[in-house]
Design brief:
- The protein is mainly alpha-helical.
- It has one domain.
- It contains 7 helices and no strands.
- The radius of gyration is 16 Å and the shape is flat.
Length: about 120
Amino acid sequence: MLEISKAVVDALASDVYQRLPRQFTKTLLQDHPDLFRPDNAEHLHAFVVRTLEPARTIGLKSAAALFTFVKLAVFVHPMFYRHPVVHNALHDAYATPDERLRNLGTTVPDPVWTEIRKQPGRIIA
């Protein structure tokens, strides 16, 4: 049986986590040229890197879930996950972290999203 050492696994994970923010930044720039200028790519990249930290803290692992979290931070509010209703939904003990994120649309009422969007500090007005 082939065994991979923890150091190798950690190195591979580190490499993936270093590539994901660049890929997410590139995708945001390509998909939304009207919102993000290429000369602001480094600022956007720094934002993506900072945003991935709380995403990993709540247990998100898949690239799709991490990118969804980043998009919510960009388009709703950078600290959307701190709102009590969203926080509770993201820490539901009966679902996996990725399921919790997917369920936000049904577990968090529209008025809460509106309230979050109205808070100061949004990336996109």
